[in-house]
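Lab notes, practical 5.
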Amino acid sequence: MRVLWMEQAQEALSQANQFILEEYGRKASEAFLLRMYKVGSLLADNPNMGALEPLLEGRSFAYRSIVVNRLNKIVYRVVEDRIEIADVWDTRREPQQQADGVK
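Output from the prediction step:
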């Protein structure tokens, strides 16, 4: 399956990476991005590996999420022959507010 990073997910990933870069440096930033993209690639072979996201129940698509590290999780949906990564959530933030922002 193809993995597509939707615009909202790209923006969230960029913001998280910028924070890591400023606080922890280039090496940590590179490791963070590598881990995020690796998990994204794993989803191509295992699209249902993430748990159904309870905060997004009742939507027109079934959203799943997978914790990447203790601070971030990827929220995605499977649509036909592709995986659409909808958002990257900061696990320290209010979950319902993040759920409300998923399109």
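Observations recorded by the TA: The beta strands are 2-5, 51-52, 63-69, 72-79, 82-90. Residues 35 and 68 are 7 Å apart (CA to CA).
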